[in-house]
Amino acid sequence: MQIQAIVRELCPRCHKGKIFRGPLWRTYLAMYQRCPECHLKYEREQGYFLGAMYFSYLLSIPPVLALVLLLWWLTPWRFDVVIVAAFVAYLPLVPAVTRFARVLWLYLDRHFDPDSEPRP
Where are the domains of the chain? Predict the structure, then answer.
């Protein structure tokens, strides 16, 4: 149930309310301030999603590394060109990874600190 809620980008408390205001290609990171269903406040404090940057970084390493190795193996390019090409090829995935990292951060934070904000 929780994996399905993470993939569907639903509230970590009630698993019903949406976290983001619309689809990725239209709203990117536009989030609701609170869950539409249970009113959980998503951004607890200023800079709350700094932790999501760590998730984003960890989620980005394997695909970029795979792209580097693939390009290094398939092309006669110099290594510095391969690195740049891999990062450029990865750029279209950045919005999706950033959004998914925010969802993972919300779920991890909620797991370790479930009662930090009481229900209204």
Answer: 2-112
Instruction: Tell me the pLDDT tens digit for each residue of 59-103.
Output: 999 999 999 999 999 999 999 999 999 999 999 999 999 999 999
SS3 32: coil
21 close to 33: Cβ distance less than 8 angstroms:
no
pTM: 0.85
> Which residues on adjacent β-strands are paired with residue 18?
10
Task: Say which DSSP state 59 is in.
Answer: H
Q: Residue 42: which residues within 8 A CB-CB, separation 6 or more? A: 19, 31, 32, 33, 34, 35, 106
End-to-end CA distance of the chain: 25
Reported in sequence order, the residue ranges of the chain that DSSP labels E, i.e. its strands, are none
**Tokens for 84?**
């740049």
